[in-house]
Amino acid sequence: MKILKLLFKLIGAAVLIAGLYLGAVIGLATVTDYRPADVIPLDVRANGASGELLGSELTVLSWNIGYGGLGAEMDFFYDGGKMVRPTPAQAAAFIGGILDHLRASAGADFIILQEVDKRSARTGKRDETETIEASLPGFANSFGVNYLVRFNPVPFLNPLGRIEAGQITLSKALPVSAERVAYHSAYGWPKQLFMLDRCFLLSRFKTASGKDLVLLNNHNSAYDPGGALRQVEMPLIRDLMVREFEKGNYVVAGGDWNQNPPGFDPKALGGPFPAQATEVMSDALFPAGWTVAYDLRSPSNRDVGDPLRPGATKATVIDFFILSPNVQVLGVTTQPLDFRSSDHNPVLLEIGLR
C-alpha cells in the first residue's frame, strides 16, 4: 500500500511539473509572440551593389536552403522522420555546400532564398544571413523574418529551442524599396505561437524603360492539409501582382509555393527519385496571359520522412515562378544538386522584359 501511495504521489508530482512547464512555455510564447504588421519596410544592405538594373534579359535563382539543416543525411520528425536537428559537423557541411553553390551562381542578377536561419539553436546559432552576404559581395540584400519563436518546446524531450528564420532577396542592383508583406494565415491557438508567420518579400527596381520590376520572394504555408491556409494566401499575392501589372510594371514572383504548379504531371519527372504529386495550384487563379515557369524534367523538393535514398525517396515540384504577361520566359532549369545540402534543389529562371 505504501508503495502504491508513493507511486501516486510521484505521478501527481510529474503531472504538476509537466503542467507548470507547459504553462510557462505557453506564457512565454504568448508574451513574446511575433506579431508583424501587414507591411514592414526592410533595411537594404548595399554590400557593394552597383545601384543600376542593366539590360532587359535577366536571371533569377530561387532556392529554399532548408535552413542549412536538411541535407541528404537528414530526415525530420515533423514529416514522419526521427531527427530533430543536424549534428554540428552536418550543419557545417550543409551550409558549406550551400555557400559553394551560391558563389558559383554569382552570375545571376537576382537570388531569392527561403528558410535562412539567423542565430537559431537548431543550426548552432549560426547567422546564415551574414555568411551569405560575405559569400556574395556586390549583391545588395534584404531579410524578412517569417519564423521567430523564443523557445519551441517540441519535441518534448529534445526541444528545438530558439528559432529565427526568414527569406532573403539578393540583387546586383540596389532596389528602390524592399518590404515584408504578411499573409496572416495563422494556425489555431496555441499552435500558432510556435509556427511560422508566413509572408512574401517585395523588392522594387527601376528599369531603363522607366517601369518598375517588382520581384517577389514567396514562401507559402506547409503542413496545411487541404490547402486551407494557402486558399487565404494565394488571392492576396495574386491581387497585388495583378495591380502592379495593371500599373504597367513587370512582375516576377518565385520561391517555395508548397504546392504543385498548374498542369503538373509527375510522370514527366526524370531522375532517380520516384515522383509524387501534392495539391495542385488552380490554373484559374491568375488571369489569361500570366505564365507559370518551372522545369518539367527535374524535381525541386524531396520528401524528408527518411534520409535521402536514390530510387526510394519521393520528390516533386513546388519551387517555381509566376510572371506577368510582359515578361518572357527564356529558360528555366532546376539545377541537379541531388538534394545534397538542402531538401530543395535551386531553380534558375532566365527572362526578357518586353
Describe the overall structure:
By secondary structure, the chain is α+β, with helices and mostly antiparallel strands. The chain folds into 2 domains: 1-31; 39-353, Deoxyribonuclease I, Chain A (4-Layer Sandwich). The protein has helices at 2-31, 88-104, 128-135, 228-246, and strands at 39-41, 57-64, 110-117, 140-152, 161-171, 177-182, 199-206, 212-219, 250-256, 291-293, 301-302, 315-316, 319-323, 327-334, 347-353. The strands form 3 sheets. A 7-stranded mixed β-sheet has the order 1-6-7-8-9-13-10, covered by helices on one side. Strand 8 (212-219), helix 4 and strand 9 form a beta-alpha-beta unit. Helix 2 (88-104) packs parallel to helix 3 (128-135).
Short description:
The chain is an alpha+beta fold and 354 residues long. The chain has helices at 2-31, 88-104, 128-135, 228-246; strands at 39-41, 57-64, 110-117, 140-152, 161-171, 177-182, 199-206, 212-219, 250-256, 291-293, 301-302, 315-316, 319-323, 327-334, 347-353.
Topology readout:
Elements: H1 2-31, E1 39-41, E2 57-64, H2 88-104, E3 110-117, H3 128-135, E4 140-152, E5 161-171, E6 177-182, E7 199-206, E8 212-219, H4 228-246, E9 250-256, E10 291-293, E11 301-302, E12 315-316, E13 319-323, E14 327-334, E15 347-353
Parallel strand pairs: 2-3, 8-9
Antiparallel strand pairs: 1-6, 2-15, 3-5, 4-5, 6-7, 7-8, 9-13, 10-13, 11-12, 14-15
Helix pairs in contact: 2-3
